Amino acid sequence: MKLKLIELIICFSLTPTCSAVLPLVINTWPFKDATTTAWSTLCSGGSALDAVEAGCAQCEKLQCDGSVGYGGSPDETGETTLDAMIMNGDTMEVGAVGQLRRIKNAIGVARAVMERTKHTFLVGESASVFAENMGFLAEDLTTNQSLSIFTKWLKENCQPNYRQHVSPDPSTSCGPYKPQAMFQRRRRGQLIDIHAHDTIGMIVINQAGQVAAGTSTNGARHKVPGRVGDSPIAGAGAYADSTVGGAAATGDGDIMMRFLPSYLAVEQMRAGVDPSAACRTAITRIKKHFPDFFGAVVCANMTGSYGAACNKRPGFSQFPFMVFNRKSNVPRQEMVDCI
């Protein structure tokens, strides 16, 4: 009780003695309400894990930018499914879910996997049944908005899509999938819809230096059913180690997961590299092989220093992210120039 009282005093004090930069909340994209919720959870005596879960859950409730939570990014059959993970940097435990159906609170289910099982990752219908058995409410994840997105896609002959070759159409509403030439050019660097990739990735470090990280997303719009991206994969979507710090990523998950950018960034910080440079290294490693990929990484070390990096694309030269610490005592959006 005394420790919680001390943390409350530290969180809200504005005296010169409170110039340290811990605790810290940092997350991808300008999802201010998620940042504020995580900070409030810390200041109410919650743990770093509690803060990550609360912050990501807030984004799920608000359907942040249509790319987190229910009612967004329908797949080829029109269904919205969710991916999420949470990691405890003290114990190195991870809980994750992929292609979660019917359950809105994906980050909560991920934490249940971590704390209520000896597993790390549950997927698909089995993950949904597990969630229902744990008491999570089963609800329809479809909304008028997701139906509208799906209907528009069907009217455009199922373009764009993620198929590389002609293949059967599971929806039977259009002909065989044929990659649209214009869409292929867009993916190679001319145009990109950043709102189809806005995963929330969050890192929280409390006053005691305990690190936690988490992610939540509804995945890639018009994805092939069954697809799971980078977000719920430890080391790809996020990574936390309380002896070092944490990192979280967002962007083209099918490419980014191949390079484990969050793990790489944390290992860079372990070697003494500052957070900004660690993030840049993670992005540069991917850029070497896929120069036109879309993505960004945020990093924070155990002292509360932080940074971010992104890959420069036409129309995307800066990446916005949120920070909350005692230096400003308010959530603030920061921008990093892409490389």
TrEMBL record:
It catalyses: N(4)-(beta-N-acetyl-D-glucosaminyl)-L-asparagine + H2O = N-acetyl-beta-D-glucosaminylamine + L-aspartate + H(+). GO terms for biological process: proteolysis. GO terms for cellular component: lysosome. Residues 1-20 form the signal peptide. Its EC number is 3.5.1.26. Substrate binds at R227, V228, G229, D230, T250, G251, D252, G253. It comes from the Eukaryota. The active site is at T199. CDD domains: Glycosylasparaginase. Keywords: Autocatalytic cleavage, Hydrolase, Protease, Signal. It holds the Pfam family Asparaginase_2. Gene3D superfamilies: (Glycosyl)asparaginase. The record marks D198, T199 as: Cleavage. The keyword Mitochondrion does not apply. It is an enzyme of class 3 (hydrolase). The keyword Hydrolase applies. One of its GO terms (molecular function) is N4-(beta-N-acetylglucosaminyl)-L-asparaginase activity. PANTHER family: L-ASPARAGINASE, N(4)-(BETA-N-ACETYLGLUCOSAMINYL)-L-ASPARAGINASE. Belongs to the Ntn-hydrolase family. Cleaves the GlcNAc-Asn bond which joins oligosaccharides to the peptide of asparagine-linked glycoproteins. This is N(4)-(Beta-N-acetylglucosaminyl)-L-asparaginase.
